[in-house]
Amino acid sequence: MASDSFTDPLGAFKAIYSIALLIFSIIIVMALIFDEQTNLSQDVHPALAFILIWVALLWLSLVEGGQASMVGLPPIDRELYRESHPISWRICEHGHKGDNLDRYLMGRQFMVLALVFVINLSGAPIKDAQVLGLPDVLANAFLKSGLAMILMTCMIGQLNTQVNASHCMLDFINDWGNWFTVKVAMAIEASGLLHASYLIQMIVAGLAGKPIESNEEPRSGFMNLLFWVRVLYSCAILIFAFFATIAALFDGKTTMWEGVPEVVALILFFLLMAVVGMLEGMQIAFFAVSKLTDEERNSSKWASMTCDVLFHGEGHNLPGFMVGRQLCVVSCFFVIARVTSMDVEEGESNVLGVSNGAQEFFNTGLLGALITTIVASIAWQLVASAFPLAFLSTPITYVLLRLCLMLEATGICMGAWVIAAIHRKVAGFQRDEVYVGTAEERAAMQHGDKPIHKSEVGHLAGGAFPAGHDLPFEQGTGKTPTQRRNLIQTNIEILEDQIRLSANDEEKHVFERALKKELEALRQVQRELGAKAIEDDDEEYGEE
């Protein structure tokens, strides 16, 4: 993975060229804004575009990092950090109550899309934009393709905070900015704007024949009525958003590049939403199948091929996929933003004959953000939570996995780890184990971890950038396979002793989970050494 090391020559080279590309991207985007060659700077004022793009990038970094913390912290007893991290405790006390985590994740998904659309509105170049006298080759590569915006968004607005939050969850969200972000995400969900997603959730669970676990009592009659009213109005808004966006496309009233036929733009719109959906679903599916046996994973030829790549060697490819996936998804988001953001010139009729005020709202691109959030993101995540193996059993998944790994291998986003390291140093972040200990230590203190759901069907938590303790495989230690095998065998012996000495079932369960991970790691090393896979020793400890 890109985060392996800055000290080896290749890692240092990747970090330097990635940071150089990021700095160059920032310079040309800021030059575009102050030359009034972006939509917002041209139509309103460069100062507003400048402020909005940086507010959106920094807020997006809070949204993305906060997600890793919010999804990673539920199993940990909140009393362990109530005094050391009072704001983190306050956020989690409300955010992890009942089914609030799913509500937060749903609202947060819309925030991501809305912020990306704002970044696009503020910094995307207008037609025939020229800046700093760049030659056509560079202008096409960084401006017309959107690469400059993609690099800024990925490295500043997403990956750097995800990296820190995945290991420093408590320190990262222990501020009022994250508290405000969580409240906004919850308010967006409460508005009912995204409630069409719940209808999709019910359909998916019904098709899977599995119930949706809830941590709340069934809704009362009035609350049930209010729920279904919001579902209906959300569906109505979604249908209208589709209708208005497609009408604008065929009228040539979007920011889509000139020369692209309307039919091609429409096909591109749906194709990119499908690609985003596959990538969103793949993330959930990959973490779901990481808990299955080899026999279950290899249910089909394509599932077997995908898992062979995904879990190869020391498991670097899974976190590597996460980085490449982020690049792909953000790239698709910016193209979708161009396809769906409306742009009605002065003197032209408004889309569907709406008022000027409504047209100004349409021009923000929020209709496209709503469509993408529900149809291209949440819906696919819900399907993947119910049918993870089906996601693996297609050649499309295999091709996208290879593409993401290829993008990650270029190191083009390694600058995010440089930014993360600086941020971590300045903020004084420490790993969560410093404050709350390891899972085994928490169990020994009678504060063992407790999963928020036994089944992830119909839930969105699997779509988060994983917290460190949730990664199915640890990153490489630099040891030889034989040395790692000996270390793992020692860990297994220690864990088996701890299971026998467990004071209660809760403590025993935590050690059994850790043992299963060590046994899986041992199987990986054995395969690496070309030896026979070990017998399924963990059967005697029962299912998780």
Describe this structure in words.
This protein starts with 8 loop residues before the first helix and ends in a 16-residue tail after the last helix. The longest helix has 30 residues, at 221-250. It has 24 helices and no strands. Mean pLDDT is 81; it is low at 468-478 and 531-544. It has helices spanning 9-34, 39-43, 46-72, 86-95, 100-123, 136-144, 147-167, 169-172, 176-190, 196-208, 221-250, 262-289, 294-297, 301-310, 317-340, 356-362, 366-386, 388-392, 395-409, 415-427, 433-436, 439-444, 481-501, 505-528. By secondary structure, it is an all-alpha fold. Helix content is 67%, strand content 0%. Helix 5 packs across helix 15 and helix 7 crosses helix 20. It is globular, with a radius of gyration of 24 Å.
Query: Based on CA inertia axes, which overall geometry fits?
Result: globular
Helix/strand/pairing category: mainly alpha
- Arithmetic mean pLDDT: 81
Figure out the total of helices: 24
Helical residue percent band: 55-70%
Number of strands: 0
Rg: 24 Å
Quote the beta fraction.
under 5%
Low-pLDDT ranges: 468-478, 531-544
The major sheet is characterized as: none
User: Between the first and last Cα atoms, what is the distance in angstroms?
Assistant: 29 Å
Order of helices and strands: HHHHHHHHHHHHHHHHHHHHHHHH
